[in-house]
Design goal:
Number of helices: 9
CATH superfamily of the largest domain: MFS general substrate transporter like domains
Largest sheet: 13 strands, parallel
Order of helices and strands: HHHEEEEEEEEEEEEEHHHHHH
CATH architecture of the largest domain: Up-down Bundle
Radius of gyration: 31 Å
Structural class: alpha/beta
């Protein structure tokens, strides 16, 4: 039934709708093992496995090279550019958005510098948040059940102090000195002590595993929530692309979506709040998903059957490489400047969209 439907569809596209599908039986030939001709002196099992693997890899290599032969060579190059640019821009910004929102949260809650002072014979059992302690001296102090949230101690001295049942988030001790100090049931890992010195200190019952909850670190909740909203925004884009794919054409949707995605990136320049950035993320994801859908269809329709799977696999591998590169580059630019990620993503997406418009139109093309 499926083969008949394919036959009738292709014949109508060729203008030969009068032809009738006459196949009523399909005979599957028995596959002949190409290794049965191996001589008996080399016919061991590991030799057979080696030859089979080598033969399969050589066949894949030949098929891959044919993807760069006429008449699909030019299409392969253009598709590679479109796949790379779309993956680089889409996944790069997907990583950049949550980190930028987290950065905006840290900016909205500025760090408070605590004046230099000496504390002795004290006890603290409350939450300390968004503070920087520089040059402090703590003598015979007890930190009991304290939650440190984004607290930094610099050039401070802790003498005869006790940290008991302490949980910390984004908290560090930089160039601090600990003398006769006891750490009991804390989550202080070695990386939290930067260039710090210990003299006659003891660590007991260190907490293991992740001690952070959404109540302790609200920004962690936002990262998941922002990604959820961005993924939810994909649904309207999928519906629109499904309804308009055949009406406006694959290339129009591919190039138009990428160009509009690149243009929408410029509005990120004015994103100074969390709500604005989340709105831009949803708009961006809704536009790019249409480009992804049309790109998948165009890629499949541009390759003949004997090269379709290999060509599609090569482009997907290129997509993964662009994804890794985008994550590395955009992730390193979060706290530096917004200009470079915005301009980079916009340029890449617009250029990729213009290249996509140069691909052959496959809307009425019969599959090879």
């Amino acid at each position: 039934m499926i083969l008949k439907l394919i036959h009738d569809t292709n014949m109508r596209a060729r203008g030969q709708s009068e032809k009738v599908f006459t196949v009523n039986r399909i005979k599957t030939p028995k596959q002949i093992d190409e290794l049965i001709e191996i001589e008996s002196d080399t016919g061991t099992w590991y030799r057979r496995c080696f030859v089979r693997i080598r033969t399969e890899l050589y066949g894949i290599w030949l098929t891959f090279r044919r993807c760069f032969n006429y008449p699909v060579r030019e299409n392969t190059i253009k598709l590679a550019i479109v796949w790379f640019t779309l993956s680089f821009g889409y996944y790069g910004l997907s990583v950049w958005f949550p980190d930028v929102i987290k950065h905006l949260q840290s900016v909205s809650l500025p760090m408070k510098d605590v004046p230099r002072e000496k504390y002795a014979n004290f006890s603290i059992n409350f939450t300390m948040q968004n503070q920087i302690h520089t040059g402090m001296e703590y003598d015979n102090g007890r930190f009991i059940g304290v939650k440190f949230k984004s607290v930094t101690f610099k050039d401070s001295v802790f003498k005869s102090c006790t940290f008991e049942d302490v949980t910390s988030v984004n908290t560090y001790f930089k160039n601090c000195t600990f003398i006769d100090t006891v750490f009991d049931h804390t989550d202080f890992e070695p990386y939290k002590f930067i260039d710090s010195k210990f003299h006659n200190c003891s660590f007991f019952r260190n907490k293991t595993g992740c001690q952070i909850t959404f109540d302790d670190d609200y920004s962690a909740y936002w990262i998941y929530f922002v990604n959820f909203l961005g993924t939810l925004a994909v649904l309207p884009g999928n519906i629109v692309s499904a309804l308009l794919m055949d009406r406006i054409g694959r290339l129009t949707m591919l190039g138009g979506s990428m160009v509009l995605s690149g243009i929408s990136c410029f509005f990120l320049w004015f994103g100074t709040s969390e709500s604005m950035m989340i709105g831009m993320l949803c708009l961006y994801n809704g536009l790019t998903i249409s480009a992804w859908n049309s790109l998948d269809v165009v890629t499949v329709e541009l390759y003949p059957t004997d090269r379709r799977a290999t060509g599609f696999g090569f482009l997907n591998a290129l997509c993964k490489a662009a994804t890794v590169l985008g994550n590395l580059i955009f992730g390193s630019l979060v706290s530096i400047t917004k200009a470079i990620p915005i301009l980079l993503a916009s340029t890449v997406l617009v250029c990729g969209g213009l290249v996509g418009l140069r691909l052959p139109d496959t809307r009425t093309q019969v599959l090879m």
